[in-house]
UniProtKB/TrEMBL annotation, chains A, B:
Matches recorded under NCBIfam families: PRK00051.1 (NF000768)
GO molecular function: magnesium ion binding; phosphoribosyl-AMP cyclohydrolase activity; phosphoribosyl-ATP diphosphatase activity; zinc ion binding
Cofactor: Zn(2+); Mg(2+)
Protein name per the record: Phosphoribosyl-AMP cyclohydrolase
UniProt: Zn(2+) binding residues: 78, 94, 101
Catalytic activity: 1-(5-phospho-beta-D-ribosyl)-5'-AMP + H2O = 1-(5-phospho-beta-D-ribosyl)-5-[(5-phospho-beta-D-ribosylamino)methylideneamino]imidazole-4-carboxamide; 1-(5-phospho-beta-D-ribosyl)-ATP + H2O = 1-(5-phospho-beta-D-ribosyl)-5'-AMP + diphosphate + H(+)
InterPro entries registered for this protein in UniProt: PRA-CH, PRib_AMP_CycHydrolase_dom, PRib_AMP_CycHydrolase_sf
Major localization class: cytoplasm
Amino acid sequence: MGFDPLTLKYDVNGLIPAIAQDEDSGEVLMMAWMNANAVLRTLQSGRVTYWSRSRQAFWVKGETSGHVQELVDFRVDCDRDCLLLRVRQTGPACHTNRRSCFYTALRDGGEVEILTPETG
Amino acid sequence: MGFDPLTLKYDVNGLIPAIAQDEDSGEVLMMAWMNANAVLRTLQSGRVTYWSRSRQAFWVKGETSGHVQELVDFRVDCDRDCLLLRVRQTGPACHTNRRSCFYTALRDGGEVEILTPETG
């Protein structure tokens, strides 16, 4: 692979934000963080792998839930400090069982839930 | 307005990442940062206002370029530490004059530009 993950810009914790977008629907599913090794693992495996800041460990998305993200396209922004991952999402992306983590919207000054948890 | 921007989770610098997505096309345009006051200004004005980390100042998107972002919907993620802004984008969102900042994709192990600068 010619691409070197170290050419990306990481923050003081060595992390870069990664936005996951559903390849088919265009829906923004979630945002999480990667370090250079997580970028490498994602590119090598085709399976989106974040860095869990709370667990301080690799987080192979869907490893326990089965709600995996298959990498379809890997994009870098103009500043090289943010990633956009076009993915094929199996099941819900959010740990609340909703399709997307962005299920809360502000409407008329109050918060409303615009997605309900999936069942089954 | 019933919503209090201080109920969001900010990082050690008092910032929260905000993803701007084109309301019509679903295209992810850019990611930038907001502090609580930028969130407030965005909600009150309907004009997306970030916090510029390099300039340490409010950044009313498009104030000088005219490439404004009109807020259509404001969404919060499950952890309340990331925002998704559905926007109506005038002109290109990227300072390189491309529609989106995510114009670089990895293909066959190399970087390719998938968007060209807009003219006129």
